[in-house]
Structure prediction request, 377 residues.
Amino acid sequence: MPPERVRDALRERDPLPGGRGFAGRLADPPDRDGPVLVRDVLGRQPLFVERGAASSATADDPTDPDAWSFDRTDLDDPEPVPAGAVASSAGTERVWSLSDGGPVDRESGQAAVDEALDAALGETEAGGDGTDLAVAFSGGVDSGVVAAAVPDAPCYVAGFEGCHDVAAAREAAAVMELDLRVVEITHDDLVRAVREVDAATGRRNPMDAAIAVPLYLTAEAAAADGFGRLAVGQGADELFGGYSKVADPVGDDRVAAETVRGARTETVRTLPGQLERDVLALRAAGVEPVAPLLDDRIVAAALALPGDLLASGGERKVALRRAAVGRVPESVRTADKKAVQYGTYVSRELDRLARRAGFKRRMDDHVGQYLDALLER
Prediction:
């Protein structure tokens, strides 16, 4: 994003100034003495400082070139700059937050999503020459609308033999007439990728590993074929109400809210941590992510939706699915989606490897103990 737009966003406290996120050093911020580090409100771009460097005015200057990086492996003891924050020698200040205003009416809410999706998907190829882009594809509506916007780009899916995601991707690619390339994961691939993901992200818990590994292996295959960018459907579930805990939050101990919109807000707040993991894993695999569904225009439109355009009558991501009419075949538009760690069988196979290594299910966090042992070797 151009520095001037970031300056304007800082001056006006505008959390969604256009684009798909930003992070970095701003040399001449408004109303501040000296340079600052900035990171957008959803944390779509990872940004790290040496631990303690941005915690107080008495710490070292976090804007010093040796004190910050987009890559955590460049630093001795990295910690993320909080999403929506400005960090400087004066300390860290959160300056951007997402609006918690009330919903718009159904008609204008759906129209805004339709318009935002048109605009963002129309720019999916921006930033490259049109031949360096591939798509991470699981056969659902999220990756389906992204793939439909760039029909000449090859699609990639990773998973163990017989898994849901590979089967769904094959069916969807056939009806959409897409070039699908399947990455069949083996146990050797799984172990290797767990190590690579841990090195890149610092995440070794079972959930993060099971989510990031298939993404990493998908990106690695695309990079090996010469593609430098990978279009992904990240953000759709969080923004549009794709989780069961959002569709039926009352009594669900995974969320504190008891309304669909409130539960959706809670899931949106998890995005900075998730996106840090995913972006670092993708870059470690050799590609730069392209995430059109995290475009500011789509974020703004999604946040304004009434609850029944998020989840209603057993249907999730209502507004997104309605906006997908005419973009993807009906079977793709209405497809059920499994979480990637389950749809690829990665979570299942991590459990299997753990038990083979002697970490039985009766043990507390047996997969986590297995990963700790594996990564200490």
About this structure: The chain has a mean pLDDT of 94. The domain at 106-348 is CATH 3.40.50.620 (Rossmann fold). DSSP finds 16 helices and 14 strands in the chain.
